[in-house]
Specification:
Ribosomal Protein L4, Chain: A, 220 residues, alpha/beta, 14% strand, 2 domains
Length: 220
């Protein structure tokens, strides 16, 4: 499919071909959901911790005699039912990450890009640069393009001035092409790709098929 190329000054800059194997698939919500869950679980710190009875610092001696007090039988104060005691089955540091095959992760990204393309939420620009690196000037350009909630993907290297100017703008994310991921693609209203990013994605998914082998079903 062909897409129009624009500039940050909102002028036309030709067209570019978007590969059907990347942007023309029929999205599968189940795989996209699995990928988003994979990313969210992987980013969880898993540092929660509660002391059990072996870790609390209390006396280990028996509280009072076994018989004769008229009260229930108790041992030391580290048990969970006493204030200051250890927690029974409390959380411990662990990894929340789940496994997801590499091919499935790559396919989920193609589905996310295809979903954006079908929704008309992909914009291709010639390059992402800023002459003076000023946030105000870039904000005015984005307002002219009606960009209020976008993810901008550039080539392997970000232009320093552009990245610096965009980082203070709310709901604007700028990533190099190697950082593109399903979660960030879906959480922003528009996906802005530079021509360098389109070329890099074409190279990354070179040889990807459209059809039964690619998406587990018939041709989209």
């Amino acid at each position: 499919m062909k897409a129009n190329v624009t500039t940050l000054e909102a002028s036309k800059a030709g067209t570019v071909e978007l590969a059907d194997a990347i942007y023309g698939l029929k999205p599968r919500p189940d795989l996209i959901h699995r990928m988003v869950r994979y990313q969210q679980l992987k980013r969880m710190a898993g540092t929660h911790h509660a002391q059990d009875r072996s870790e609390v610092h209390v006396t280990g001696s028996k509280m009072y005699n076994q018989k004769g007090s008229g009260q229930a039988r108790h041992g030391d104060k580290s048990v969970p039912q006493w204030r200051g005691g250890g927690k029974a089955f409390g959380p411990k540091p662990r990894s929340h990450a789940v496994d997801l095959p590499k091919k499935v992760r790559a396919l989920a990204l193609r589905y996310a890009l295809s979903a954006k393309a079908q929704a008309g939420e992909i914009v291709v620009i010639d390059k992402a640069t800023s002459k003076d690196g000023k946030t105000g000037a870039l904000k005015a350009q984005f307002a002219k393009l009606d960009w209020t909630n976008v993810l901008i993907i550039d080539g392997a290297e970000l232009e320093t001035g552009f990245a610096r100017a965009a980082r203070n703008l709310p709901n604007i994310d700028v990533l190099p092409v190697q950082g593109i991921n399903v979660y960030d693609v879906l959480r922003r209203r528009k996906l802005v790709l530079t021509k360098a990013a389109v070329a890099a994605l074409d190279e990354r998914f070179a040889g990807a098929e459209v059809g039964r082998k690619a998406d587990g079903g018939g041709k989209p």
